[in-house]
Every structure is written in structure tokens, then in C-alpha cells.
């Protein structure tokens, strides 16, 4: 995510996390963009509240790639980190819910209409996985 923020005009870095490790590693390099840490765990959100540049947001558990993209775009827009047409970087792990499995970096442009659905929702299907 650090490289994406350095090369692209990224307005926000969004991490979908279970343990908080991805957000901690991202904050360690002090990126110029804010880090929105989406987590279903209130305990992890409380821990991340003390981390530099990180804004924890408690969300419902994600059901797949499309849900993470929608939550990330919505959180970035709702919190004022990014606006219509801005670019955000999303980091998550597939399969979801497995700590230490961050292996996904997705660059997403917020829709111009900001209607709550990602502009490129059809491409999100490639990240759909089933929970086992």
C-alpha cells in the first residue's frame, strides 16, 4: 500500500483487517494518505485508535470481495477521506477472516455519483471466495 500511495494520487488507504497487523505495518511507514482500518472487531478498533494516521471503523463481517470494496468506498466517502472520482487503495486478505493472510491490493476509483456501489463492481467478482 505504501508503494501505491507513492506512485498514484491515492486519497486514502483502506485496510480490511481481523488482527490489525496490516494497518500497523502500513502506519509504520507514515504514508501521506489517511489509513481507514475496517474491522469487525471492536477490540481491534480500540487498539488501532492509538496508531499514527489510522482511523479504525467497526464494520459488519465481509462476505466477499464485493462487500469489502463497497465498504471501503463507502467508508472513505462517509468519513471525508476521499470524494467522488478520487482513488483509494484497498488492502485485505483472501480468504477473509484468516489473520496474517493479507495478499490483496486493489486500486479503486470512487464513483462520480457516489451512490454507495463501487463503479467497477463487475470486476469485484474475481475476488469472491467462499468461507470454509
Automatic annotation (TrEMBL):
GO molecular function: kinase activity
InterPro entries: Pyrv_Knase_C, Pyrv_Knase_C_sf
Keywords: Kinase, Pyruvate, Transferase
Domain Pyruvate kinase C-terminal: 2-107
Protein name: Pyruvate kinase
Protein source organism: Amaricoccus solimangrovi
Lineage, broadest ranks: Bacteria, Pseudomonadati, Pseudomonadota, Alphaproteobacteria, Rhodobacterales
Amino acid at each position: 500500500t505504501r508503494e501505491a500511495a507513492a506512485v498514484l494520487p491515492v486519497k486514502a488507504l483502506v485496510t480490511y483487517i481481523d488482527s490489525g497487523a496490516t494497518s500497523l505495518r502500513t502506519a509504520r511507514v507514515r504514508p501521506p494518505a489517511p489509513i481507514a482500518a475496517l474491522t469487525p472487531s471492536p477490540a481491534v478498533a480500540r487498539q488501532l485508535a492509538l496508531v499514527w494516521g489510522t482511523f479504525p471503523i467497526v464494520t459488519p463481517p465481509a462476505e466477499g470481495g464485493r462487500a469489502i470494496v463497497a465498504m471501503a468506498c463507502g467508508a472513505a466517502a462517509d468519513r471525508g477521506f476521499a470524494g467522488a472520482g478520487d482513488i483509494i487503495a484497498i488492502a485485505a486478505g483472501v480468504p477473509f477472516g484468516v489473520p496474517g493472510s493479507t495478499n490483496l491490493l486493489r486500486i479503486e476509483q470512487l464513483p462520480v455519483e457516489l451512490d454507495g456501489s463501487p463503479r467497477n463492481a463487475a470486476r469485484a467478482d474475481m475476488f469472491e471466495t467462499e468461507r470454509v
